Structure formats: structure tokens, C-alpha cells
């Protein structure tokens, strides 16, 4: 005869697989994400109101809301670590035909000791920043902070390119500038009327932002704050997803800066942090609702999503860096080329610098 203790132990062991399968139901819910501190919100609101005040009738000079005949590109770097590829970007900017065609702005997480590269275009371009967390609305706030600062800083800033510390250029500055500002053929999806010019100046410009309406995880992400938390301002059929790295016109930068309605929804804490990536939803949803025809619905930053790890894209390493890789990363079905790419480990800098003159900046 088996002892009572043996029978109970054996029964428990048999039930372990079932308990394992049911365990997620009995585990406590994930801790809701930390809300943005009120002082940070108030600081941002003051900044955004200043930027929004520049969009009145007396300050609207063209389709891009810039009075400067030499339109500029604002390069907005969002980082929580050192700018490892600063030497490559430095060479990119040094090769610009003129210094009055671009501005650089850096939002660096103040809780991390980020080095300000001396003697480079980055050294004095760090803006007042707040702490950021991955998969949280703090990344939305940081991007809006960059946009607002660039809008206020220079009325000639016409395009705003959001980049990370892991992004690298795939072309020369001249190619990037021409593609965004002057080319009538770069966007393969545009109609003839959208590429029209008058006096050598483009009449219409679009924002290059990825906007995806069909995704198998879209509903889970939508309901991450609660089934009806986004209603009525953002019904599910209006919810979109896309890359947080994009290039937008000044017109759309102002749309983002002025928004208060959708922000109140997207800043809500999530109860399913594993399905919560507000930075990938806020911008495509907002601009899709505000001006869908003014967006290309694709991004100019190439990302490899094969072999992803914990939501991060594929990361390139030094042995993979080659001319063939650069050519492959440039290939696009929507434009003549991708302009930027991510994600690269810091030790990729040396082989990338070795290709700078002969491949990357040779268009």
C-alpha cells in the first residue's frame, strides 16, 4: 500500500503540467507603466505652446511653412547612450554643399552619461531633455520636444528627420537633401500632380512616415490600456502602427506639436506592457487621422525585422558590413532609395568609416 503522503505527492506532480498551462491566469497583472510626471507635462506644454504660436497666418510662408528660400533639414537624434556613429555623421554633414542646409538637435536621456562629441556638429546641439523608457509615452514626449525645439529654433527647418543613435546614413548629404527637397521622382508612389513644380520649386511635399492599418497584433496593442480606453477619440478602425523613425514636413510637425486630444489617450498607462508600444502608434495614428493624403505611408529608414529579439530589430555586426550590404539596404519598393538604416552595433563604426568615401557617400 502506498502511503497517503506518497499519493498526494504523486498527484501533485501529475497536475503540474496543467497548473503550468493555467498559471498565466493566476499570475498578478503586470505593473502598469509609470505615468509621465506632471512637472514634465507642464514644461512640455509651455514649449509646445511657444512652437504652435509660430504657425499663425503671418508665419505661414509656403507649403512647408518656411520663409527661407533655402529650406533646411532638421536632424533629430533621440538617444539614451553615446552617439557611437558621430564620426560617420560628422563626415556626412561636412560633405554638405553648404552649412545653411541643415540643423542638428539631440535629445539625450539625462539619467545616462551621454558624451557630447567635442569639435563636432553635435557638441552644442543638445536640447533640455527628460528621462525616457522604451515602450512608453516618454518616447513620444521626447520626439515632440525635438520637433518643437527645431520649429522654434529656425523657421527655415522644413523637414524633420527623427533618428536614433543606432541609425547610419546610406547616402551623401547632397543625395538626401535633393531627394527630400527638389526631386520630383524620388517618391515612386506620387502622382504627376504631386510632383509638379513652379519656378523650380516643388508645390507639394509629403511626410515620409510609415502608416500600417493591418497587423496581427494591432487589437492587442489597442486594448493594452483597457478595451475601451482609447474611445471615443481613437476608435480601433483608426488605430495605426508604424516606425517611430520618420521624416515629416513642418506642416505635420506642427500638427504633432499642437495635438492635445490624442495625447491624452496615448499617455495613459498600459495594463499589458508586453503589448504596449505607444511610440509606434501615436505618430502614424495622429497623422493618418489628420492628413492621410499628405503622408507617403512608408518610412525612409531601413530596418530588418527578420530574427527579431524581444521586439528589437535585427542588429548588424562588423563581419556583415560590406558594400553589398549598403547597396541592399538602399533598395526600396516605394522610393528611389532608403536614406538611413538601423540597427548597428557600436563596433560597426570602423568598417562603416572604411566604406564612407568609396560606397556610402558615393551616390
From TrEMBL:
<keyword id="KW-0328">Glycosyltransferase</keyword>
<keyword id="KW-0325">Glycoprotein</keyword>
<feature type="signal peptide">
    <location>
        <begin position="1"/>
        <end position="23"/>
    </location>
</feature>
<dbReference type="InterPro" id="IPR044174">
    <property type="entry name" value="BC10-like"/>
</dbReference>
<protein>
    <recommendedName>
        <fullName>Core-2/I-branching beta-1,6-N-acetylglucosaminyltransferase family protein</fullName>
    </recommendedName>
</protein>
<dbReference type="InterPro" id="IPR003406">
    <property type="entry name" value="Glyco_trans_14"/>
</dbReference>
<dbReference type="GO" id="GO:0016757">
    <property type="term" value="F:glycosyltransferase activity"/>
</dbReference>
<dbReference type="GO" id="GO:0009505">
    <property type="term" value="C:plant-type cell wall"/>
</dbReference>
<dbReference type="GO" id="GO:0016020">
    <property type="term" value="C:membrane"/>
</dbReference>
<dbReference type="GO" id="GO:1900056">
    <property type="term" value="P:negative regulation of leaf senescence"/>
</dbReference>
<keyword id="KW-0808">Transferase</keyword>
<keyword id="KW-0732">Signal</keyword>
<dbReference type="Pfam" id="PF02485">
    <property type="entry name" value="Branch"/>
</dbReference>
<keyword id="KW-0472">Membrane</keyword>
<dbReference type="GO" id="GO:0080142">
    <property type="term" value="P:regulation of salicylic acid biosynthetic process"/>
</dbReference>
Amino acid at each position: 500500500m502506498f502511503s497517503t503522503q506518497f499519493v498526494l505527492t504523486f498527484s501533485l506532480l501529475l497536475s503540474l503540467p496543467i497548473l503550468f498551462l493555467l498559471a498565466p491566469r493566476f499570475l498578478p497583472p503586470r505593473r502598469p507603466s509609470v505615468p509621465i510626471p506632471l512637472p514634465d507635462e507642464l514644461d512640455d506644454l509651455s514649449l509646445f505652446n511657444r512652437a504652435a504660436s509660430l504657425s499663425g497666418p503671418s508665419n505661414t510662408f509656403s507649403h512647408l511653412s518656411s520663409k527661407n528660400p533655402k529650406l533646411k533639414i532638421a536632424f533629430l537624434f533621440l538617444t539614451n547612450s553615446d552617439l557611437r556613429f558621430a564620426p560617420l555623421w560628422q563626415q556626412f554633414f561636412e560633405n554638405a554643399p553648404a552649412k545653411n542646409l541643415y540643423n542638428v538637435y539631440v535629445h539625450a536621456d539625462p539619467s545616462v552619461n551621454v558624451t557630447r562629441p567635442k569639435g563636432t556638429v553635435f557638441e552644442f546641439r543638445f536640447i533640455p531633455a527628460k528621462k525616457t523608457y522604451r515602450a512608453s509615452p516618454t518616447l513620444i514626449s521626447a520626439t515632440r520636444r525635438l520637433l518643437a525645439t527645431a520649429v522654434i529654433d529656425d523657421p527655415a527647418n522644413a523637414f524633420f528627420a527623427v533618428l536614433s543613435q543606432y541609425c547610419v546614413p546610406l547616402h551623401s548629404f547632397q543625395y538626401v537633401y535633393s531627394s527630400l527637397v527638389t526631386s520630383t521622382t524620388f517618391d515612386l508612389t506620387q502622382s504627376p500632380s504631386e510632383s509638379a513644380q513652379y519656378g523650380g520649386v516643388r508645390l507639394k511635399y509629403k511626410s515620409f512616415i510609415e502608416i500600417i492599418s493591418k497587423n496581427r497584433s494591432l487589437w492587442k496593442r489597442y486594448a493594452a490600456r483597457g478595451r475601451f480606453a482609447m474611445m471615443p477619440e481613437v476608435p480601433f478602425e483608426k488605430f495605426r502602427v508604424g516606425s517611430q523613425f520618420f521624416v515629416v514636413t513642418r506642416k505635420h510637425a506642427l500638427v504633432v506639436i499642437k495635438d492635445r486630444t490624442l495625447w491624452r489617450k496615448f499617455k495613459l498607462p498600459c495594463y499589458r506592457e508586453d503589448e504596449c508600444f505607444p511610440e509606434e502608434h501615436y505618430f502614424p495614428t495622429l497623422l493618418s487621422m489628420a492628413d492621410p493624403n499628405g503622408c507617403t505611408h512608408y518610412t525612409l529608414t531601413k530596418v530588418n525585422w527578420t530574427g527579431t529579439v524581444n521586439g528589437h530589430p535585427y542588429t548588424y555586426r562588423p563581419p556583415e558590413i560590406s558594400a553589398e550590404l549598403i547597396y541592399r539596404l538602399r533598395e526600396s519598393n516605394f522610393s528611389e532609395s532608403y536614406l538611413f538604416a538601423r540597427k548597428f552595433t557600436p563596433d560597426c563604426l570602423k568598417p562603416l568609416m572604411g566604406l564612407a568615401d568609396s560606397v556610402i557617400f558615393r551616390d
